[in-house]
Specification:
Blueprint (H helix, E strand, L loop, with lengths): L3 H13 L6 E5 L2 H14 L8 E4 H8 L3 E2 L2 H15 L6 H20 L4 H4 L9 H4 L5 H16 L4 H30 L2 E2 L1 H13 L9 E5 L6 H12 L3 E3 L4 H5 L7 H9 L19 E6 L2 H16 L9 E5 L5 H7 L7 E3 L3 E2 L4 H14 L2 E3 L2 E5 H8 L7 H13 L3 E3 L7 H6 L7 H18 L6 H23 L6 H13 L2 E2 L9 E4 L11 E5 L18 H6 L5 H16 L4 E7 L12 H9 L4 E5 L13 E2 L5 H5 L8 E2 L1 H9 L1 H9 L14 H16 L11 H4 L5 H16 L2 H7 L1 H23 L4 E14 L5 E14 L2 E8 L23 H13 L9 E8 L7 E2 L10 H20 L5 E2 L13 H4 L2
Helix pairs in contact: 1-2, 4-5, 4-9, 5-10, 10-11, 14-15, 16-17, 16-22, 17-18, 20-21, 27-28, 29-31, 29-33, 31-33, 32-33
């Protein structure tokens, strides 16, 4: 089957074999030009002068006297015009998104040759509509009437009325802004794209385009704007040729959206090929394969598998094998799954820069720069930001690695810049002096390129290419800012650079006319592949669900012939059906995972094909096989590798602590991963502070305050406690502890409110404990934050050491309270003694277990002999005294009543732990896995 461009090339040669240079060929895009030139060169036997071939945008730019203005200066100048007309103060930062939308609307108005004065007319009274718009047709007037009726007769909340009022006030000024803006641009010899199109259309209407005295040829167009129609009219008058690419199947169906624009085009500009070729391929298709896969990786793998099998026998024809990506983010997983021996590949779209680690680093650094803190000559950065930068794989110098470890280990909230200056790259990433954003980024990119070059880092070659590309883009932005003397705030610059860089693609080296062609749907215009795969054929991608925002309401867009969402769907439908109409081997792949929020259901195009060609399409749907977790739990046997590691706890080599036994009871597998395999959770530092660090500050401060009163066993009186209740005394100790945690605490306190918040909360809770102690004076302190231990016999030859650091041992008379501080809230229900040693139990009473185990540990110490021991909790958030543990469903049983039962169950658990026939199993309660770091290993 001959391809569309082959048919066009043959017809052109038949008409102008020896005078191709007399043709002026205009195509939709650069890709069409590349392949048309290639096909012509193959068909021409002897050297000829080539025809002139332009894209439609290039042709318009050549015809217009205006020079195309870049987007950023265009919006900056639009802001100036807007500010001169609208008296309300608006910063350029707040205006920018609004300006982008307004510029897009102006562009549409000019490309579709809409009378802006007419469109932006302000209707004071509904009765005016007939007179104001008497030159329009009835259905247009009806649409306009509907719009203004909605404006004036709409009812709603006050907020809606306010928005309606703001819109009307803005609408009054739109035409003034439009006219003034265009006048300003024209006087400078500049114009946005729509202005260039309108100017060229006006020339065409006045018969002032001579097409360089050549025969105009238009190939492969579909939806034409008003300006393009004027150009086509001029070409038709000049005897131009029109080559349309379509299929009779959707063209004959009057209501089929794919043929919506083509039916108009063929009526106005008849096909040069006429009836010479019967474009009726869809009806004659033998086989279409439709496959559903439950995820992006699966789609990419299947695409690679199919195309690789086809490519092994490919010749040099670049239109042999093609892949169209409905979702262009699938490019990276596709390239990763293609085998090394796939052969030549040409990726026309390039790899999005946003897929590189370097762009991620640049985005972080732009935020970091804005977070720099100056305080009395000192420069600080939030440690969380610094850590995020230093953890990037591009930043891997030894000095910075050491700095990273310091910040994590010392848990500083802020990092003083001096800590980063020893390393050359560190001093560039985190400068002491203020530097503008552009120069800051350029210095970083230059340093990365030089570092990779010096280290001969071949694996970072890709990042070097990305750095050069980003540097070039920033340079262009700098040039625009300088040329137009723009003054843009840094906050806006960050947004602009982010947007610019996210839209840049890295060119992947390949020969454009050899191998597998990978592209987007729009790039495939005019191209036909023998073997074609289209993936992500889902609603939201094919057709796209995104609609450009606009100030012009739907009814007015429709009335004046501007593009609406229905037109957009028709355009996508044409692109899709045009792409598949000549493919001999066609595979359509969609994401069948209904839980994937990024994808809608399978595309309506697939459903249309299945309905129209039921005997042609074969459909397969693959699903993940999900095995219930209880059927296949993860089990670690205590084999010759694991048992020696576990035995390190025996005979005093390592101690086991209550927190570890709690972990074992909750999930034996987690105990193995964390304490036997020693897989560590990655250290992180939030910009705020977590409960664990706050608890540490509270514990350490209490120890400092009460240490002078501890260990004497003498009763503590009110007079001894009152001096501790002084705010200044408490804050001094809190700041001492916080300085150990976070560094220069006074400097950091002034820079961040979180430090002061921690300080005030800790002060509040500590005072609450002291006040309760004053009410209950007369107790003595046996110990604070001291570690105790006990040896437990596992068997005749082996013992295990159980140790615990007890927050507070407090005695009153013959009673010793074994106290564990708790920063959380008091549980609403009492714990059950039977639950202390339960495996897989949601909300197991871990705190009660820990307090009971502490009590068991100290029982044999001399100071505890003949004493009544009471496991207790002290909840510092609650203004209440010590909370002795009382179990639900039992009488007031003391530790003495329950200790034998507790010790027996403890012995059973320890025996189980060291029994080599009892493996480490995964918990059966998946709720316990919700916040567990190891769930990525367990696939929970």
């Amino acid at each position: 089957m001959k391809k569309f461009l082959e048919l066009v090339a043959e017809d052109l040669l038949e008409r102008k074999n020896h005078s191709l240079h007399e043709l002026l060929i205009i195509v939709p895009g650069k890709r069409s030009r590349t392949f048309l030139k290639h096909i012509l060169s193959q068909l021409i036997e002897k050297p000829r002068f080539a025809p002139s071939i332009f894209t439609i945008n290039e042709f318009v730019e050549n015809e217009s006297k205006l020079k195309l203005i870049e987007t950023i200066p265009a919006i900056a100048l639009l802001y100036q015009t807007y500010s001169n007309i609208i008296t309300k103060e608006e910063t350029i930062d707040n205006f920018w998104y609004f300006g982008e939308m307004l510029l897009a609307d102006f562009d549409d108005i000019d490309k579709y040759l809409v009378d802006a004065g007419h469109l932006f007319k302000y209707v004071h009274d509904l009765k005016e509509i007939e007179q104001l718009f008497d030159d329009l047709e009835g259905d247009q007037i009806e649409l306009i009437k509907q719009f203004w009726q909605n404006i004036y007769k709409g009812t709603g909340a006050k907020s809606q009325e306010k928005v309606r009022g703001q819109f009307l006030e803005f609408w009054k000024h739109l035409y003034k802004i439009y006219e003034a803006y265009k006048k300003e641009l024209s006087s400078a010899g500049m114009g946005y794209e729509g202005m260039l199109y309108r100017e060229t259309a006006i020339k065409a209407d006045k018969n002032q385009i001579n097409f360089d005295k050549k025969k105009p040829v238009f190939i492969g167009f579909n939806a034409l704007s008003g300006a393009e129609k004027q150009i086509f009219n001029a070409a038709k008058a000049a005897g131009g040729l029109f080559y349309w690419d379509y299929d009779q199947w959707y063209l004959d169906k009057k209501h089929h959206e794919a043929g919506y624009f083509m039916r108009q085009n063929l009526r106005q500009y008849p096909s040069t090929l006429g009836d010479k070729h019967n474009f009726d391929n869809l009806r004659n298709k033998q086989k279409i394969e439709c496959i559903g896969f439950p995820g992006e990786l699966e789609m990419a793998q299947k695409t690679a598998e199919i195309i690789t099998s086809k490519a092994k026998s490919q010749d040099d024809d670049p239109l042999k094998n093609g892949i169209i990506l409905g979702n262009e983010s699938l490019l990276t997983p596709l390239l990763q799954t293609l085998p090394d021996d796939t052969g030549k590949i040409n990726v026309t779209m390039g790899l999005p820069l946003q897929n590189t680690s370097l762009l991620g680093l640049v985005k972080i650094l732009m935020q970091v720069k804005q977070q720099k803190i100056k305080n009395k000559g000192n420069t600080l950065y939030k440690s969380a930001w610094v850590i995020e930068v230093l953890q990037q794989d591009i930043i891997n110098t030894p000095n910075l690695k050491e700095t990273l470890d310091t910040l994590i280990n010392e848990k500083r909230l802020f990092c003083e810049v001096d800590l980063l200056q020893a390393d050359p790259i560190g001093s560039i990433l985190f400068p002491v002096k203020d530097i503008n954003l552009i120069e800051y980024l350029k210095s970083i990119l230059k340093a990365i390129v030089e570092y990779n070059d010096e280290e001969k880092n071949e694996k970072d070659y890709f990042n070097t290419g990305a750095a050069i590309k980003i540097y070039s883009a920033i340079n262009q932005l700098t040039q625009q800012i300088e040329n137009y003397k723009l003054d843009l705030p840094e906050k806006l610059m960050v947004r602009l650079i982010d947007r610019i860089l996210s839209s840049i693609n890295l060119t992947l080296e390949g020969e454009p006319l050899k191998g597998i062609q990978i592209m987007g749907l729009i790039e495939a215009r005019t191209l036909d592949f023998e073997n074609l795969i289209i993936n992500a054929v889902n609603e939201g991608f094919l057709p796209s669900s995104s609609v450009a925002p606009s100030f012009i309401p739907y009814n007015l867009r429709k009335a004046y012939g501007l593009l609406t969402f229905e037109n957009q769907d028709a355009v996508f439908a044409y692109y899709f059906y045009r792409a598949i109409q000549r493919a001999q081997n066609l595979t359509l792949i969609y994401n069948s995972n209904e839980a994937d929020n990024d994808y809608g259901e399978k595309s309506r195009f697939l459903q249309q094909i299945a309905f129209e060609f039921p005997n042609t399409i074969t459909e397969n749907k693959y699903q993940h096989v999900v095995t219930p977790i209880n059927e296949n739990p993860i089990v670690i046997e205590k084999d010759q590798t694991v048992q020696p590691l576990l035995n390190q706890y025996l005979n005093g080599k390592r101690k086991i602590y209550p927190i570890q036994l709690n972990t074992y009871l909750n999930c034996p597998l987690k105990f193995y991963l964390q304490y036997i395999a020693k897989i560590k959770e990655p250290e992180q530092l939030d910009s705020g502070i977590d409960q664990r660090i706050f608890g540490q500050i509270f514990h350490d401060t209490m120890e400092l305050l009460y240490k002078p009163l501890s260990g004497t066993k003498k009763p503590i009186s009110k007079d001894m406690l009152l001096p501790l209740l002084n705010d200044e005394t408490i804050l001094k100790q809190i700041n001492h502890i916080m300085a150990q945690q976070f560094g220069n605490i006074e400097l950091q306190k002034k820079s961040n409110g979180m430090i002061s918040l921690i300080e005030q909360v800790a002060l509040k809770y500590i005072k609450r404990v002291i006040e309760n102690d004053i009410k209950n004076e007369g107790f003595s302190l046996y110990g604070l934050e001291e570690e105790y231990e006990i040896k437990h016999q596992i068997n005749q030859d082996q013992t295990i050491t159980i140790a615990g650091k007890i927050d507070r041992l407090q005695a009153s008379g013959n009673q010793i309270f074994v106290i564990d501080y708790k920063t959380g809230k008091v549980p609403t229900q009492k714990p059950r003694f039977e639950d202390l040693f339960a495996h897989d139990l949601p909300k197991r009473p871990e705190a009660a277990f820990q307090a009971y185990l502490y009590t068991t540990i100290i029982e044999n110490y001399e100071f505890a002999q003949n004493k009544e021991l009471t496991p207790s909790l002290l909840y510092i958030q609650e203004n209440r005294p010590i909370h002795p543990i009382i179990f639900s469903g039992r009488k007031q049983e003391t530790y003495a009543d329950l200790k034998n039962d507790f010790k027996a169950q403890l012995s059973n658990i320890l025996t189980e732990l060291f029994d080599n026939t009892t493996p480490f199993k995964q918990t059966e309660d998946s709720d316990m896995c919700t916040n567990c770091y190891f769930k990525s290993i367990c696939h929970r």
